[in-house]
Amino acid sequence: MKSVIVGTAGHIDHGKTALVKALTGIDADRLEEEKRRGITIDIGFAHLELAAPSGERLRLGFVDVPGHERFVRNMLAGIGGIDLVLLVIAADEGIMPQTREHFDICRLLAVRRGITVITKSDAVDTETLEVVRMEAADFLRGSFLDPAQSPLLAASSLTGAGIAELKAALAKAAADTTAKDSAALARLPIDRVFTMKGFGTVVTGTLISGTIRKEQEVELFPARRSVRVRGIQVHGATAEQAVAGERTALNLAGVSTEEVARGMTLGTENTFRATSRIDAQLSLLRSAKAMKGGARVHFHAYTSETIAEARLYGTKLLKPGEEGFAQLRLAEPALLVPGDRFIVRQFSPVVTIGGGVVLDAPPPIRKRHVQAAVEFLKTMLIGSPEEALAARVARAGVAGLALKDVPGEMNIRRAEAEKLAAQLAMPNCEGVLISAEAFSKANGALMQTLRQFHDANPLVAGMSKEELRDRVQLAPEIFSGVLAKAIAEKKIETAGELVRLAGRGVVMKDEEAESKKIIEDAFRSAGLKVPLVKDVLAGLKVDRARAQKIMTLLLREKVLVKISDDLVFHQTALADLRQRIVALKTASPRIDVGRFKELTGVSRKYAIPLLEYLDRERVTRRVGDERIIL
């Protein structure tokens, strides 16, 4: 069954609540004070099922809002998630201040469909009714409620006149309304919180996107805490799930009523993040005063309300009727994503002055490059999803944009993010997207760093991967991607943890090559009775620093093997020792220090480190004062 949310709008005492009751049989005024005073103070709810002209069943959820100017903030909490509006104008009063303000709010929120209803038609004569009809038509001309394309009906909640015609118009308008996406990421702005005996915490709201199922874990924003959906009601009936476009009550486990409030939002877990800053396109009403950069405003989005500071991009003043890009800095964080609509009201006196659409949340902190920010926001406003993703990835530079972060940043499903990335054929480094330009820049930095290293260290075989990544300052995923591509293109070579430019090994001068040979020969000829390293290096023609680098090179090439802090052996001597020890196993599988010294002819100073080396190499295993030959 298709679900559509209908919101009322109009001046106080123009019959909005009575009209909803005439349509649904439900009194949306639930508060005792509302019934006593005869006015709507807070948002109320009702529902109705109708058949579309095609026979399709339609479920209409009504959000009835207050019309008094003092309660516009409550009106804004209910109007944000509606699909179509009933603009109510009383026949005995005509268009009034809140008629205009509510209509402006609907336009700013980009409501696309609606029906204009002239109520209390029984209270005036035919001539007066026609005058009010003409006044309304003139007021609405050129808007989404232009009578040339949208119904303008007269009705009486008292006598029932026109109610049948209104239901038929509602059925047609609802059938023509595009359904909200039930497969999208789930978000439910909370408009009521209460405790139900035997159940605990219950919240209500309009599910603006996605699906929420019983026993599902969802995340509460801006608190960033996980809660479980214990039970679901849709329009008063128990259900296993709620889908986008439905008025929903959720029984939550793991949170008390004191921890939840109107203005919070439930969303898909581990996807979104709340923000205190948004970049947006901001529009001012023609009736508003000019807005200076840094102006403070009341900010309303869905059920949330806070104070915001508007920082304008590229201009110091936004004139009445104009629109421009701005960053809004919120006093309290909220869950907002690209495409969300909002209303701003003047700080004092509090009147509606404009609204806009979220383009980026949260945007990066910018101190300069205003023009680049404006170009980016233009792409977010009018660009395709592919262009929007490409711009976001390009903005991330060599840091890249993690694919797992794209859904929350763009308000799209993971599958859609992956599809867009594939269509763009952009580099994907272990789940991190990077633009071709940034990838090339990272590759250039890596190659340049290696060149500089080789030039400064001709006696070193290569650079460790960790040192290279640290110098180029790339994320591990980007570094791995750039490194893998350079290896595939045979631009660089690796040897274990060492990285070097292709064809760039150790470059030695004659005296350095000679010194290398002297070191190697000294240890080879010594067998197991090796000299001290410092004594060998002291006899070389090269300086101490270069001698140490040559020694390091021989150790990295495993020509020499260091078995303790001051003992280095030639690899042939150690290989010969291993063979001799293994050969002893047939005669006797055990050997002690004394026998080892006798076999090798070395002193205890050498014997103990060599035996410990054989233990590490799993040639022997120490058991008490002996070794077992493995």
What is the CA-atom radius of gyration, in angstroms? 38 Å
Structural class: alpha+beta
Name the strands of the widest sheet in spatial order.
2-3-1-4-5-6
CATH class of the largest domain: Alpha Beta
CATH level-3 fold name of the largest domain: Rossmann fold
Low-pLDDT residue spans: none
* Average pLDDT reading: 91
- Provide the domain count: 4
Major β-sheet annotation:
6 strands, mixed
Strand share of the residues? 25-35%
Silhouette: elongated
Question: For the record, what is the CATH homologous superfamily label of the largest domain?
Answer: P-loop containing nucleotide triphosphate hydrolases
| Count of DSSP H/I helices | 19
Tell me what the CATH architecture of the largest domain is: 3-Layer(aba) Sandwich
The share of residues in helices is: 25-40%
Number of strands: 34
Question: What does this protein structure show overall?
Answer:
There is one protein chain. The mean pLDDT is 91. 35% of the residues lie in helices and 30% in strands. The protein has 4 domains: 2-176, 3-Layer(aba) Sandwich (Rossmann fold); 187-268, Translation factors (Elongation Factor Tu (Ef-tu), domain 3); 275-370, Translation factors (Elongation Factor Tu (Ef-tu), domain 3, Beta Barrel), CATH 2.40.30.10; 510-629, Arc Repressor Mutant, subunit A (Orthogonal Bundle). It has 19 helices and 34 strands. The radius of gyration is 38 Å and the shape is elongated. Helix 8 (385-396) crosses helix 10 (414-424) and helix 18 (593-600) crosses helix 19 (604-616). The strands form 9 sheets. The protein has a 6-stranded mixed β-sheet with strand order 2-3-1-4-5-6, sandwiched between helices. The protein has a 6-stranded antiparallel barrel with strand order 7-8-14-11-10-15. Strands 16-21-19-18-22-23 form a 6-stranded antiparallel β-barrel. The chain is α+β, with helices and mostly antiparallel strands and 630 residues long.
